[in-house]
Amino acid sequence: MRIERMNERDIEKVSELVTDAFYDKLTVKAELSKYKVQTILKLLWIQEAEQYGMTVYTVWQDNHIVAAFGVTKHQENRVSLRLLAKTLAVIKHIGLKSFLCFMQVALETSHLPQTGEVYIDFIAVGHASQNQGIGHFIMNQLAERLEQDGGLTKLTLFVLKGNNRAIHLYEKMGYKKTDNNKSEKYYFMVKKIN
Asked: What class has domain 2-192?
């Protein structure tokens, strides 16, 4: 397995993986088709990751993308004209009410990292590749790479409270649940780096 920084040709596959992983969570309040959710994620989040300070990576196995993840070291809120135009086009396409419901759910796990903190925005493993240790591989590689960068004091992430397999993995890797939690549905977890 290898990890690469996402490039333009990977955007469609990454948006598909993220949609498959989070579709049920993102459509709780807004009844949107899987296609519409993937379009929103692709146009407003994956393609515009740098606008949010997020770097997206792909995990390759046998020349196929099997997983993707995104991390934010610092967040600069730079709104470009392109992002604004895309947002307006999405609102026109799905309606303001559906867009606001979608965003309300999507923003439940948004987080502004502090200096020295790296926030793990998402980890999405393809259904056919689950239960093969890919999540463990990602977490190990991520920790190793970030610790080499220096200046890192902690890794953070949100995890759905009912996702016991992920919680177990994160706790095994040194993450602890914190009281810094703004959501009833998610745990905010922190791994301190020495």
From this structure: alpha beta
